[in-house]
Give the backbone structure.
Amino acid sequence: MLEVIGKWLAFVMAVFVMQSSFLPIIHYNGVGPDLLLLILASYAFFKGSRMGCFMGFLLGLFQDLATGTFFGVNTFTKMIIGYGCGIFSKRILRDSFILPVSASIMSTAAAYLISGSIMLLLGYKFNILIHVTTHLVPMLCYNILLSYPMHAMVRKMIDDPDENKKRGIL
């Protein structure tokens, strides 16, 4: 159990380091992909709504603590998205190529709408049309491009043959 937690922790840390250190090179107007969101969507599709919500809490809390933005916004947003993606875990074809792409579109749009709504409720003013074209559209493009590789990595982490051998599945 601790080995699995350690693998996931190392994986999330490596992805976050890549997201915050190397990927800013390709950012467009300061906007880049949200790889933790892509991990969450894929994980929730494989594990269900309860585990998706829990993973969303952990990833959001980690992102809130690491970035120093409004504390709790990422946690709340990712919890809702993890639960929402997990609802469909038993109703989807997991081998489909379209799953990670459609999940990235839906989860990116949902994260944008939830965090934008929170910012509006907090009293921040911004032009929604300009903000959509300068923030949401580039993030959607990045997340769509990176959705399948991230989905494949999450699937590999979940379908670890060493774990299956230990449990007697293979």
Summary: The chain has seven helices and no strands. The two ends are 18 Å apart (CA to CA). The CA atoms of residues 82 and 125 lie 28 Å apart.
